Amino acid sequence: MTQAVKSVCIVGGGSAGWLTAGLIAARHRGAPGGEHCLSITLVESVERGAIGVGEGTWPTMRQTLRKIGISETDFIRACHASFKQGAKFVGWRTGDPDDFYYHPLVLPEGFPDLDLAPHWHEAAASSFSDTVCFQEFLCENGLAPKLITSPEYGGIANYAYHLDAGQLGKLLRDHCVGKLGVRHLDDEIVRVEQADNGDVTAVVGLRHGPIKADLFIDCSGFSSLLLGQTLGVPFVDCSDVLFIDRALAVQVPYDGPDSPIVSHTVSTAQKHGWIWDIGLQSRRGVGYVWSSRHAGADRVADELAAYVGPAFADLNPREIAIRSGHRACFWKNNVVAVGLAAGFLEPLEASALVLVELSADYIATAMPATRHAMDIVARRFNAMTRYRWDRIIEFLKLHYMLSEREDTAFWRDNRDPDTIPQNLCDQLELWRHHPPGEHDFASANEMFPAASYQYVLYGMGFRTEPLRRPTADERHAAQDAFARTTATKRKLAAMPTNRALLDKLAQYRFQPI
Description:
Elements: E1 7-11, H1 14-28, E2 39-44, H2 60-68, H3 72-78, E3 82-84, E4 86-90, E5 100-104, H4 117-123, H5 128-132, H6 135-140, E6 160-162, H7 165-179, E7 183-186, E8 189-194, E9 200-205, E10 209-212, E11 215-218, H8 225-230, E12 235-237, E13 246-253, E14 265-269, E15 273-279, E16 283-290, H9 297-308, E17 318-321, E18 325-327, E19 331-332, E20 335-337, E21 343-344, H10 351-365, H11 371-401, H12 409-413, H13 422-431, H14 450-459, H15 472-492, H16 498-505
Helix pairs in contact: 1-7, 1-10, 10-11
């Protein structure tokens, strides 16, 4: 008789564990003991805590929280969250602080039916993102993407969040246990038991003994207790492409309660890496990520101190090791890894939490009914997830390889052709004659659309020389699109600031949709 999948055990908490628990429980909860009820247990060592550094999300987080059943207002309050409308890259092209570009979360006007890149190349009156999209205007003026009257998870502009990852884990835990029926065990795993075919049959806790399940989800962090240690799935290192392997993080207080909260991530290039600057409600999260092959921690600390200013003297920097790469596969036997147990890359473009969301949502949606069906789901999951990792690695490398900086070996080495994936080289060769378009990306599992490549390419000074000139009709359509963008900016000038809206949220609640 085929073994039915009736129980899930998630090993590890934090954002990865509790997001996974929430998405599965929200989809598969039922009456206790009912035919379709799936029991879900999460076991973690509360004393150990989570790494809790990731503070940037994608717009997908709005749908994820909605699926789990958490109010946006409750989330914003509990996680000290603020609105994020993209990323501003400063000094990446030349090192000049006045050299910057945006990767916003709003698509170019009319995209993909109307491609404005050739028309921007002809005019080039301002930056690409500012010409084809209104969101750079909102960011540069510190404006919010929505109004106090906007419905929960809805807004005027596309947006994501900056958040306190530690608080997110706590909010999700309380919701999953209190409202979704997830069983929570605080325990230290001391042993893993396996069947003859390699399947994990139980994880053994120091206090609770054997914890059995049909499907185990490894959210144990960098240790990868089940997938890496127990099942022996090797780690695929990608430090030959992405050099960043260290981070020095600090929490910087605001100068005062009325200090502006930027509505985007600021990524400022440095000599040996770059600094992230993320504004939460009560503080900024700031960190320097760098390559230890190119600089020591003392040199990096000096640059970080210069960036933060006098307040740095009273802060306690936290150094974090980054091992760039991922497991050779992500689902083996009856174990699937989510989060750091699956892999990790530097925080450029905030891909960590979105990979958790996408993986957890797929598991919840494609939850196998039997052990035999699990092998089919696993093959599909592995192919899809590996594709996503490869595309993320290429997109991150794009930011570095386009730089014109010559001041340090870090930037020069990033342009070494031997460090650039072949697929990315092929795409760039094509894009010399036509802008990135949907025809360049055939998979439904793309992490970054063609518009994202356009924002980065043209923000970094890349030139496309089309094989043909736009027609008169195309030029007319482009001028109309540019005019609509300009008109939208004028209308949005009255939007509240990020700080003003977040302050109001301390008193009022959005109207539910």
